[in-house]
Structure formats: C-alpha cells, structure tokens
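To whoever is on call:

I kicked off a structure prediction for a single chain this morning and the downstream step that reads the tokens threw a length-mismatch warning. I double-checked the sequence; it's 486 residues and nothing unusual in it as far as I can see. Pasting both halves so you can look.
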Amino acid sequence: MPRSPPVRPRGRRGGKYPGEGSKDPGGRKAMKAINFLFAVHNHQPVGNLKEVFSSSWERAYEPFLALLEKHPAFRVSLHYSGALLEWLEENREDFAGRLRALADRGQVEILGGGFYEPLLPLIPERDALGQVRFTQQYLGEKFGVRPQGFWLAERVWSPQIPKLVAPLGLKYTLVDDSHFRYAGFPEEDIFGYYVAEAEGFTLAVFPINKRMRYAIPFRSPEEILEILRRYATDSGQLAVTYADDGEKFGIWPGTQHWVYEEKWLERFLLALEENREWVRLLTFSEYLENFPPQGRAYLPPVSYDEMMEWALPPLAAVAFEDLAEELKREGRYERYRPFLRGGIWENFLVKYPESNHLHKKMLRASQKVHHALQARFISTREFPPPPALRSLWRGQESCAYWHGLFGGLHLNHLRHAVFCQPCLNMVLGLEVFEGAVRLADLLAQIGSSDEDFRQHLRKAASRRLIGVPTLGGVIPDALQIRRDAL
C-alpha cells in the first residue's frame, strides 16, 4: 500500500511536540512518543425504559463528565445519540451548559452522526442525509459547535459513506481496525488515519485499536501505558485510537464499582497526566490538521468482528467459531485472520423475520412521509424538522433491528417503539394532505410488503391497519389509527 511522503508536523501553535526528533541540552535523543486519540460514544435507544436513562446518567454519564471537569488536560471526543440528548435536555437541564463549557475550553470535541443512531447504509439516502444534517443543526444551536467528524453507528461501513457525508462538511469518522484487516492491511500499518474515497469525495478514517478497546477500562492504567509504549516512535507521528461505548464506564456489569468506587478512571487520567511528555492527548481534528494520512484505503462493507459473528445464521456461526478455534490451536489464526470475517449486517434481516418486517415497514413509511411533505412544499432541511419526519427518523433507530450481548431486537419495548414510529408517520403524512386522499386509497393495497416476492394483504378497515401474510395465517400487527386522521 503506497504511503504519503512523510511530512513534518507543524505542532500546536507552530511549536514542537515532545519526542519530535529533538535533543535535550545534553545532546541525548528525546524519548519516543505516541499520539493518543480518545473517543466515547454515549447512547440510549429510542423507547428504552425511563429508569434506564436515569440510572445510566447517574452511574456513568454524569460521573464521567465530572471527572472531565476535574482533569482539563484530558482531551476527548464525545458523541451523544439523539434519544439521549432529548432526554438530557428534558431531564438534566445543567447538562448542556456543562458540555458546552468543556467544548469552549477546547477539551472536548463533539462528534456528529445520524441523530437517532441509524445504520446509514441501511436507510434511504434522503433520510441518512437528513439525520446527519439535523445533528449538525442541533449541535450548533445547543452547544455552539459544528462537528468535523461523526460517529458511524455500529461502525457499519459502506464504500459510499464518503460520497454521502463529505458534501455536508464532515471530514472524518472512526471504524474498527478489523475493517482494515479485511482489506488486507497488515497490523503494523493500522495507525493514524487513512483517506477513503468514493466518486472523488474523500473522508479521513481512523482505525480503532482493538487491543485498546478490550483493555479499557478493564486493565490497570500501568498495563495500558505499556501497550501505548509499544506503539511509540522516535518521530512521534503515529496515533493510536481508542473509541467505544460510554456505558463501559459504569453501566456494564461490575464497572461502576471498578471505574468510580475503586477510582480506575481517575487513576487512568492521572497516569496520562504524569506521562504527558510522551503520551500526547489530541482531538481527532487536531491530529488531522497536523499530521499526514498513512495512505489511501478502500474498505469493504463490514462492521466490527463481533457484529459479523452475531449476524451469521446459527449453524454457520458454530462452524465459524470451530474454524477460528482450530486455527488458533494450530498457531495459524493471525495469518488467516483477514479472511475470517463472518457475515454482513444485512444477515439480521434474514435471520430474524421480525427485523425484516420492521425494516420494510420503515421503508414504506419513508416513501409516504416524503411524498406528503413534497406535496405541501415542506423542506426536509427545516430546523427543527417537521413532526412527521422526526417521527420517521426515530423509527430508524438501529437497536431494534439487531442484537448484541445486551439485547436489542430481543427487547419488546424497543421493537414496539420503532414499530409505532413509522406507523404513526403514515397517519401524520395523511394529515399533511388535509383529507385530500382517503386513508383506504393510500394504505389498502396488495403487494410485496416485505420485499420478498410473497404477497401480503394490507387493508384499512374500521380505522385499523392490519397485515395478513398469505403464508402461515399470522396477523403480525394491528394498528389503531387516530380518529382525526380519517
């Protein structure tokens, strides 16, 4: 893989970084250095229980924020998903001021993304653009920032992502180092950032270091420093990226006691401060401005390792695990690891009919809502977005369409929340027409509603929308339509 020619970094305010090939007064070579880029993704899904929002704030989000305020030298990039931001705005009035103060003093860089945490490649492009643009507008109004980078939900990558987001002014995103391994990159080259391109649109992509992702916050600060020391170089140009869920800092089992009561996080921040001569904490935008890319990268449509395994059908998942274990026993796993990539996210739509049903219902709702808005010349770029559009976007929140270790599709209240949003949009879309089109004319149709070439009947009768698959005789959903929408 060709690399860009080395460029001497300018450094902040034009000065030198520690370890930048300089010498001390005694003529000795300066110590090796590494740039450490740290990001935390805070997310609660649409429809999650109110007590989960509240306990997550008390156990993880608030104590993490408090330690940031206490340690101004710790530079970090933060992402908050839309449902969580809405809850915080309504229930924790001091949050916006606290986060804005951290951003104003340059300690925190706020990341953008799809507002309601959609999988961008799996929703209509018009909605993907709308959700990303809505996040930019929201962050600008509430926190006075325009994000330079964005959080890619579940790191579900598509080669067309650069073309989608670059016109919106976004410069970078974060994906797992496994994305690069699947593209054939050797481990020793997966540092800093690479430039991805689609039809001439470019985007910087930072690889998330899996070793760091597994170590934080479960290893001691001393062990994490030793990992960083392995990556330090004389030039000090390389960067190691850590990025993962904020729920690891207080919500995951046992982490509240370990991270806060036993003060792991505070000890970690103090260790970084004590080693700041060779561990340089930068935001992603700062690193992007001061250091060149490692080269160009064209990444396949993948997500992180665990997601690709979860997406496999049961028998294939067992065979995949057996093969991986066999290669590990034979000492050949690392050699062939780039070719062991499991499935793709879309397999969840095959593995779980419920997921496919939700997904296709969302696609139909998107068509109806956008058609209704166009009929009234209502712009999808309005801020705040029209209620029908915002409701549609809530129905695109990704957690109810798949599962990980902690539920998702398996949690009925998440499925219910997503299911109700697109259905509500069908009603709100009708209200835009002001009765110009009858409900039965718009909703009653015979077609392939799950896009699987099987006929389904959807009919409106007595203010109920009922889905009746022709195979199996099951009624999967029945929606009570609002009386004033008829």
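Update from on-call: the warning came from a stale cache, not from the record. Cleared it. Sanity check on the structure: The radius of gyration is 24 Å.
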